[in-house]
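Input record (one chain):
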Amino acid sequence: MRIAIAAALLALAACGPSPTAADKEAAEAKQREEMGQDDPGIPFNPQPPGPPRTYEAMSKTAMSFTPGVLTLTPTAQKSENLPPGAVFNFDNGYKIETTLNPGGAMMGQNPPDWSKVFIDTSGAKIDPEQVTLYDVDNEVIPNNLPNGGFCKKVAFLATYTVKSPGAEDMTIAAYEGDQWPPKDETALCGTFTYSAVH
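The corresponding structure, as predicted from the sequence alone:
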């Protein structure tokens, strides 16, 4: 009899009480906090990203490395402490997933001289404030690409867009290395220009 009672008590202890609404709320708050949200009590509702934009490879380097269409798809914030990002999908299967680095183009004591990196075909001076910097989170390089990716391993992408009536040209500067600003000019792997016709 004592053995049966002990077994019943052990079974009840193993089952434990079912989770309450408070337990569920605490678990959700912990998950939000792990994602970097400052106040787990505030629901995280990221702004929906904008629509994808498409561009055609225009420069010789772009046509050589990524012929065809580039689809640039904005992505939503993953948490309140992380900015949104974008996915660069190229027709040949090359793909770069990024997170926006707000203000990063002008960060540090020696940011790149963007006038040596980008060209405005209208003849206007390059506005460093209009350079957009992305941190690269993931890069997918299919095995059959003749030239591989933009770099041995892309770490940062900077973009500069020039708009004119009926058209939009975007140049991507690809950088390798483990720090920003880069240590020297050799971190720049190349520039690649794409055009969108409206």
